[in-house]
């Protein structure tokens, strides 16, 4: 059992004598997302496995490299839920050591101080407010704001003198470590807030309290965290305020080649894309279009797979968690010099870099932007999601339980985002590789190609649709999903394959700025606690209704599909492929 301390349920704003004076070892040693060009990647999520507009824009053409579209969507993403229960807050009494992998533990405790009586911890109620906290885009912040943010972070770091102060910088970072790396268990299984529908609400609550703590440390209840505006060309760099050595916002454990104004790659998985800055920005904008619009027309595709109590963790992540959330972590982390990609490139250490909170502020902003697009893009109504709970300390060191249902409206929570344009809305790929329909009669049918023992080369096949010439009402009611069943591979390996429609295997797979490019399946190496075989089995689905419209195949009964292996294809097997109509 990890060493921790006990806090009284108190409204005192000062630290009580209940904090112990034992030291906290701050040696980073945990892996989240880690990669180098010549090495394998690793992700430690430690879940039990059963089967994880400036003028330059006018000159931007529509070339793009789209990585990781689609994500790790399990079959549960679209299947109706059985009767279950919401995830409860973790039992702090059972909090234990977090793990890097199956053999290595995090070298210090990530557990928070324990209240004297966990059963008496109340539910949080929003305090009264007279003014919204406005979160500004980080790249546009003025020096007065930066000075205030630096001061607040410095004061939070000073609280680390008592390693059990829940408001201290390291204790705040440990929240992320404990919730991801196997320190908590619920229902006899390890708790994991990534790779499922808990991802967005957990991080929203996490940032809510972090932001209020910062404001309290400088006596400014209106202070709002900045957001890293990586979805706009002006924000596609490490925000300069975080790149000032000697500042409380600086972290030396970052990739040094990604400093000094380097344009970020929102599809980054370790290898550097050799292209121009303008091309990289175009790639990023098109990638954002695919992840926010094309591949996320339905709530569960955006939020991630259901994760009620009693089910195995990591059932499948949503589009934005997969990309760009994960690549930004990898891109920022110090993969060249640190063993596990610390700090940002690793779950346990990500919160030790102040830019983590800035990054997740923009991830949180995407939740609001996605709902604003319209259609069926709305919050989930499932009670197991709405009633799931977490545990946090507020700015007065009081412990609270919170529910997902109470974090759906940012304004009710007391904050909003300063508006910025979203140019990615207009970056739908429009160029076509072919002028008509590929001759599907020349391709083997899916029934002859699958089961596929290994995806060691490009594979083209024809596949039948369940319905053609659908009306707009029918499209509104059901999304057409290209579905790959029982994809299996070694979860210690990095894998990726791309999916195209209406092309054959001669397609130039390095040019993804085509309407026919449907998306990609990607997986980073990750550790699941009880999986000794390391064989992962998943179902991968791509929403193709919009693509079929764009490439003029709505009236066709049979279409062509092509899989292009990009990484680890020789270790990928696929049981079957089919197209299904699924209720959104």
TrEMBL record:
GO molecular function, one term: metal ion binding
EC number(s) on file: 1.10.3.1
Domain Tyrosinase copper-binding: 194-211, 353-364
Cofactor note: Binds 2 copper ions per subunit.
Pfam family, one: PPO1_KFDV
Binding site for Cu cation B: 325, 329, 360
Enzymatic reactions: 2 catechol + O2 = 2 1,2-benzoquinone + 2 H2O
Keyword hit for Thylakoid: yes
Linked residues for 2'-(S-cysteinyl)-histidine (Cys-His): 180-194
Cleavable signal peptide: none
Protein residues bound to Cu cation A: 176, 194, 203
GO cellular component, one term: chloroplast thylakoid lumen
GO biological process: pigment biosynthetic process
Cysteine disulfide partners in this protein: 95-111, 110-177
PROSITE patterns, sorted: TYROSINASE_1 (PS00497), TYROSINASE_2 (PS00498)
Enzyme class, UniProt record, top EC level: oxidoreductase
Cross-referenced InterPro entries: Di-copper_centre_dom_sf, Polyphenol_oxidase, Polyphenol_oxidase_C, Polyphenol_oxidase_cen, Tyrosinase/Hemocyanin, Tyrosinase_Cu-bd
Family according to the record: Belongs to the tyrosinase family.
PANTHER family: POLYPHENOL OXIDASE F, CHLOROPLASTIC, TYROSINASE FAMILY MEMBER
Role, per record: Catalyzes the oxidation of mono- and o-diphenols to o-diquinones.
Stated name of the protein: catechol oxidase
The species this protein was found in: Capsicum baccatum (Peruvian pepper)
Lineage: Eukaryota, Viridiplantae, Streptophyta, Embryophyta, Tracheophyta
